[in-house]
Amino acid sequence: MISILQVFKIIFSLIASFLILIMLMQYLGAYDLGQTGNINAKIMNNFAGTVTDVYLTGNPADFGEFEEKKINYFFHTEDETLRLKSSASKYYVYAPFLVSSEEQVILHRVDYDYGWWKFSFVEALPETTFVFTLEDNSAESRELVRDIVNSFPHTLYFDTPILFGFCDGYDLLDADFCGGSGDNRCHRDYFLNNLSVVGGVSFSKCSAQNKMGTRHRLITISNNCNPTYNTGLCIDRLAQKMYLAGNTYDYYNGAAGVSMPKARTLDILPLLIGWEDETLLNENLGDDYYKYLDEKFVEQAQFAAQLGSERIDIITTSGCNTFFSPMEIILDSISTASDRYDIISYLEQSKNQHKTLVLNGCDYQ
Amino acid sequence: MKGQSGFVMIFLLVILVMFIFVFMLSFVGTVRNTEYTQFYTTNLLISIMRADTGETDPSCRYVADAIYCSFISPSYICGTTGVTCGEIARNTIDNYLDYDTSIVKKSFKHYLIAEPEGSWNPVYSIGNPITFSAGDISVMDERRKTAANEFVGSGLQILNLRLFVAES
Amino acid sequence: MKGQAAIMEKIFTVFFMVIVLIALIIFLGVWNVLQINVEGQEVVNERAMSLMKLISTHPLLVKEASMFDDSKLEVAEGMPCEGFEKLFGKRWYAEISDIDGTKWSMCILNEKNASYDIPVNIYHKDTEKVTIGKLKVGIYL
User: I need a surface site. Which of A167, A177, B12, B87 has the fewest CB within 10 A?
Assistant: First the structure.
């Protein structure tokens, strides 16, 4: 017959072990098998938070939690959410962003500043080397290369290297051509400092693919893009077309006689980031991103123009009317334009007109 | 008798269990949003600093300028008010920190103090250093307070403006 | 009599053991719910903080970080909410008030919400004066 004391001992030990279990669970919560869902959710939240921080501050940031915990995620462009491949949970990111791959990435903000308005988006890239072949090696081509390269961060002090180089025929040119030395080689700023060095080089079509791995992305600038034999991205500046993974894309080089707008990289960057990866629906990611960024840009530009135009009605004074009138016309053209390239062209005009407004004390920078 | 002691033990057991539950519940943390408090404090400081005092005199147009002016030229009379830079700064800040103005939260108390940096030691007269502070000084006695600071001035005459916020 | 007492004792013993075990299970349940509530509140907090930072720095509303331009606010208030939802997501509202009592608001609904406010500046385009004000951001629950 079990005594009350023994019962007391049993119950007490039950409670004591329960308490110890709770303490253990509290402190080791992150590693509890049942908590895997929680860890993934935390990582996704951290990533969404990091994207927002980079968007707000403009400071690049590394993010390595995907690689450490080996979780698979993907980015759904229609509603700007991050998803896990393994679950239906969505994580919203309230800034336009493009992401490549599923491991250690670096996040960076790209800006298109028009003075009165700015369009920004965040890009996330894993360790990548962009290799250029300038079959068309004109000053304008090198200017394009400069604008493309400036859309990425200088990663010397970050964990995720984004490097740049050249390919000429069977040679991958780096040491002498991409600038910097030793471990510093080929980071953005060194590459840009050295860009003029390739001024006299006559590039042959790149045939060094065997020397390039999955981390290399080849960009050819040519007057003769042939989608059947050009691998990687081929940009034909004069025909204003781009080719990637069997698809053809429009590329805006600016109106004739007008200096090339920086916004032409808006066409190029989504392809460079999405590249030839596949979405879960087996579509081309670069293609997906191209359409997404285009849509975001037009949507935000037209909304901003609408607000800007209505604001002019409120703030215009007799002294500033001569400067505000043309600005209002340009903004109205932006909000009603149906062609994306018209919008970019008007935006360039609005940038100049805004400078005039500021110079005449009618508005601030 | 044996039965009774058994009941007593069980009763004690139940009391013990209840105490343990209460003890565990105390570990369910309240959500204290420190990020919000920091953001609030930093924003309050820069909003105060950048606000117009109502005067057009450049030495004291903005609160930060007025505070700086009170250290550089303490006897300077600001604009059309007939009061010194320091007084106009203090009046403006006191207005903003007044709960009735509905800018600051009633659940916080605030204290702002300006201190010269480094070797700069401005004085009214020998042994009488210039000071500037506004708000509720009891904030400084709180163990848990949030701080923000901004520097004003140039060269060797830099002021450190510090705002402290604590729960009231 | 002694036998009856012994049986009663057994019954009470078992009864109390069962009560304690059930109490433990209920406690685990309550504990879990409390933890989830805490996490839920943290999600709302994070969303509110992100939104506050996004709104107080957006070039369509501000002259510089945390300094709203009253002409931009006036225009924004007149716009339908959908435009801003494309920038900032759904289920939120913002209210900016000036020290003199003037208010501008966006996306206000009459629903239960959790809100935060922070001090900001308001730049008056016509007079070029800067006043102090408040930004209130709410998340609809």
Answer: B12
Phi, psi of A347 (to 5 degrees): -60, -40
Residues 74-103 of B with CB under 8 A from C: 96, 101-103
B95 shares its domain with B134:
yes
Residue A122: predicted pLDDT:
94
Domain count, chain B: 2
For residues A165 and A129, the answer to whether their CB atoms sit within 8 Å is: yes
Whether A105 is covered by a domain: the verdict is: no
Chain B, chain C: beta-carbon pairs less than 8 Å apart = 85
Which positions ≥6 away from B71 have C-beta within 8 Å?
B114, B116, B122, B130, B132, B157, B159
Average confidence (pLDDT) per 10 residues, chain C, 141 residues:
74 75 75 75 85 94 96 95 90 94 93 93 94 95 86
**A114 found inside a domain:** no
Residues in chain A with CB shorter than 8 Å from the CB of C50 are: 49, 52, 94
- What range defines the domain where residue A315 resides? 295-359
Q: How far is the C-alpha of A208 from the C-alpha of B63, rounded, in Å?
A: 64
**Predicted ipTM?**
0.82
The domain in which residue B136 lies consists of 33-167
- Considering the domain architecture, whether residues A135 and A267 belong to the same structural domain is answered as yes
Which pLDDT score is estimated for A30?
45
Mutate to test the interface with B, among A2, A4, A14, A25 (most CBs of B within 10 A): A4
- A240 inside domain: yes
Residues 6+ apart with CB under 8 A from A300: A96, A119, C86, C87
Q: How far is C110 from chain A (nearest CA, A)?
A: 24
**b/e sequence C23-32, b meaning 16+ C-beta within 10 Å:** ebeebeeebe
Instruction: Provide the domain count of chain A.
Output: 3
Residue B6 and residue B63 share a domain: no
Interchain proximity C74–A314, CB inside 8 Å:
yes
A117 contacts chain C (CB < 8 A): yes
Same domain? For B60 and B3 the reply is: no
Mutate which: B1, B11, B12, B16, vs A, most A CBs within 10 A? B16
